[in-house]
Structure to design on (218 residues):
C-alpha cells in the first residue's frame, strides 16, 4: 500500500508534506497546549465531548477511562471527574516530561504491541483515526480493551471536499462521512449507537478556504 497524503500528486510531494509536519512538530506541543486552552474550537469540542460522556455515563460512573492521542493529558483534569484516567500518545516529543499527568501516559503507537494494562469502561479517540493510514486495527484494539457494555467515543474530521493545507500539515490521511465511517466501524466489528455532525455551520467557511487555496495555487 502506498502511504501518501490525499492531496499529494506524487511521492515527492508526499515526502515534502511529511517533512513539513516533522519540522512543525518540534514546537507543536507548546502551540497545541496554547490552542487547546484558548481557541474557541477546542473549548466547544471539549464541551460537546463532556456532554456525551455525561449522557452515556453508566450507573456507578465510569470505572476507568483511556484517552488515545492524549498529548500532554490536557483533557485529564476534566476526565478525572468521571473516573480513573490513562492516556496513550504516539509522539514522545509532544509530552512534556514535567507534565502534570505524565505518569498516566503511555508513549507508543496505539496497538497490541503497546500492551495497555487492564480494561476500560470508556475509551476516547478524539481526532485520532484520520492520522492513521489503516485505522481498523486501532479500533479493533480499542474494542479489546473495552469492558462489556463499554463505550468508545470517536470524533473525526468530515468531508474530503473540505480538505485544506491544515489537513496536510497535520498529516491527515482522510476525512470521513457518516457512510464511510459506518463502513469502517462495521469492518472493525464496532456497533454504532449514535452519530452526528457537529460544527456543520462552518461548512461555507471551509469551502471558501478550499477555493482560496486553489486560486492561490494556480
Amino acid at each position: 500500500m502506498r502511504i501518501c497524503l490525499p492531496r499529494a500528486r506524487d511521492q515527492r510531494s508526499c515526502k515534502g508534506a511529511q517533512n513539513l509536519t516533522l519540522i512543525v512538530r518540534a514546537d507543536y506541543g507548546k502551540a497545541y497546549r496554547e490552542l487547546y486552552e484558548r481557541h474557541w474550537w477546542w473549548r466547544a469540542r471539549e464541551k460537546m465531548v463532556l456532554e456525551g460522556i455525561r449522557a452515556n455515563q453508566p450507573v456507578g460512573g465510569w470505572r476507568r477511562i483511556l484517552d488515545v492521542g492524549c498529548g500532554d493529558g490536557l483533557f485529564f483534569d476534566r476526565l478525572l471527574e468521571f473516573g480513573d484516567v490513562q492516556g496513550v500518545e504516539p509522539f514522545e516529543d509532544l509530552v512534556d516530561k514535567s507534565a502534570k499527568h505524565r505518569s498516566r501516559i503511555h508513549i507508543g503507537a496505539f496497538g497490541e504491541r503497546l500492551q495497555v494494562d487492564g480494561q476500560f469502561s470508556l475509551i476516547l479517540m478524539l481526532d485520532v483515526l484520520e492520522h492513521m493510514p489503516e485505522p481498523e486495527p486501532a479500533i479493533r484494539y480499542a474494542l479489546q480493551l473495552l469492558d462489556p457494555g463499554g463505550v468508545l467515543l470517536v470524533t473525526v474530521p468530515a468531508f474530503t471536499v473540505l480538505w485544506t493545507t491544515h489537513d496536510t500539515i497535520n498529516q491527515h490521511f482522510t476525512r470521513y462521512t457518516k457512510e464511510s465511517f459506518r463502513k469502517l466501524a462495521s469492518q472493525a466489528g464496532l456497533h454504532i449507537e449514535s452519530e452526528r455532525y457537529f460544527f456543520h455551520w462552518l461548512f461555507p467557511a471551509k469551502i471558501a478556504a478550499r477555493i482560496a487555496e486553489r486560486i492561490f495555487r494556480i
Observations:
- The helical segments are 11-38, 40-55, 76-79, 136-145, 165-169, 178-188, 203-217.
- The longest helix spans residues 11-38.
